[in-house]
Structures are given as structure tokens and as C-alpha cells.
Amino acid sequence: MMGQPRRSWGTLAPLCFLLLLFLLLSLSDSYKPIIVVHGLFDSPSDFSHLLGFINETHPGTNVTVVDLFDHSQSLKPLWVQVDGFRQAISPIMQNAADGVHLICYSQGGLICRALISTMPDHNVDTFVSLSAPQMGQYGDTQYLQWLFPKYMKSNLYRFCYTQLGQDVSICNYWNDPHHQDLYLHNNNFLALLNGERVNPNATAWKRNLLRIQKLVLVGGPDDGVITPWQSSLFAFYNVNETVTDMWQQPVYLQDSFGLKTLDARGSISRCLVPGVQHTAWHSNRTVYTACLAPWLT
Q1: Residue 273: partners with Cβ closer than 8 Å, 6 or more residues away
Q2: Catalytic residue (one of 223, 231, 256, 282)
Q3: Active-site residue, 106 included
Q4: Would you call 278 a catalytic residue per the annotation?
Q5: How far apart are the C-alpha atoms of 145 and 236, rounded to whole Å?
Q6: Cα 230 to Cα 222: distance, rounded to the nearest angstrom
Q7: What is the pLDDT of residues 258-278, one digit of tens each?
Q8: Which tens digits make up the pLDDT trace of 10-66?
Q9: What keywords tag this UniProt record (predicted)?
């Protein structure tokens, strides 16, 4: 009885290659596109490590680091930046039937929250806020000393809470706990975004934010730039410069922009990592593995 003819490797190789290619394409199709928004003075070239991490754990994922408002251009007013990023990001969303993930670093975290809040048709699944001053900034840092050499944290309000000051991005989220009346009256970005000022769009913005499935808040005590560092977790100073946590913030208690609702439905994840300086959040493998990778499905 004659045996079955043996197929040579040369015959099987093309079939195996096609099968492997099919599996890789199928795997990549299972991951939602990722959009990365950089922070103050950054550019896409700063995110090579992050792109490498994503390619290792989620091969084939479509990742876009938006190339807008790089370096000194990141000082432009945040609403101007929000409009620019919206135009760049909208087409990516439209081509993503299953939604997208946002990874937004530092100042970019505020830009992304404003984007989500003002886009009724967004399809953001997970919003990763990576060491972003979500409740504002108030501290003497190297950035502050370089940008405003004539000011310190105690008197920067004199510039930031003016019409001229509001044309500088940092002033859009400068939150002086000792001059809340001026902040509420003159801040035209964070106070509106948080629902702390009268805003005719507040209900719509809240509804838009609540369309996300997950809010991931990432930060740590050794950041060195975000001040207080707990602002990355929606905590902030009271008038005595004592940090009060998210659950004690009026914007949470009043649910002015949806934070309490997100928390109540289990949509907020907090990831605290010690030992990470501000400029290292997007290049630290431990941060990526523990705080980002689990949500990029």
C-alpha cells in the first residue's frame, strides 16, 4: 500500500506565511486606535518609548501622536489648542467604528478633557490622564521660574488673572487657592471646564464627558512639576494649602462636570506610582505596564 505523498516545506511555507499574516491582521484589528496628545514644550519625538511599549504589547495598533502645538507653540491659549486638536482627531474617530483610546500627558490631559467635553459625537472609550493638572497648578517649579522670572506662586495671579495672562496656556489652569474670587471671575478655561463658572453649555459638556467608558488617572508623589501632584487625581489645595482629596472637592460633591457620576458607576481608575519624575511618565515601562497597557484593548 502506497503512503500519502509528503509535502515539501517549500509548498507549505507560503500557506504558513499567509496564515501568520492573517492572524497578525486579525489581532491588530482587535485593538482600538490610540491617540496621544503631548504636554507643555513637548513634540511627537518625545514619545518613542511609549510607541515601542505599545507595539510590544499590542502589535499592529494604529497609534497617532498628534503633531500640533509643539514646543513653544504649546503656550498658546488652551481653547485655541483644543480647536486645533479637534480638527486633527475627528477624522481618526470617524474611521474607528469601535472607538478610540486617548493617552494625554500633562497639559495635554486638560486639552483632552476639554475635547471630550465639547464633542457630542466623540467615541472615546478610555481616557488616560497621564500626570495632568486636572484641578489646576499652584507651585514654584522650574517651568514657572523660567517662564515668569519676575513672579512666584504667591503673586503670579496678578498676571494670570488678566486678559493678557489668559492668552498663555499655563494661566488657563493656574488655580490660586488664596485668590479664588479672581480665579472664578477671570479664568476662562479651567473654571469653565470644571463648571465652577456659569456656563450655558455645562449640561451638554457633562453629558459628553459621561460618554467615555473609563477615566484612568495616573500620577505620583515624586513628579516634581505638577503642584500639588495630587491634582493629577483631582485633588487640590484648600485655602491653607492643605491638599483635600477628590471626594471633598466641591466640583465632585456637586457633580458639576460628571466626576461623581463617573466614580459612582466605577468608571474611574487611579494609578499611583512613586519614584517617577514628570518628564519620565511616558517613557517608564513600569508605568506603562501597570497603568496604561491594561486599558488599551
Answers
A1: 218, 219, 220, 284, 286, 287, 290, 291
A2: 223
A3: yes
A4: yes
A5: 21
A6: 11
A7: 999 999 999 999 999 999 999
A8: 555 555 455 555 455 444 458 999 999 999 999 999 999 999 999 999 999 999 999
A9: Glycoprotein, Hydrolase, Lysosome, Signal
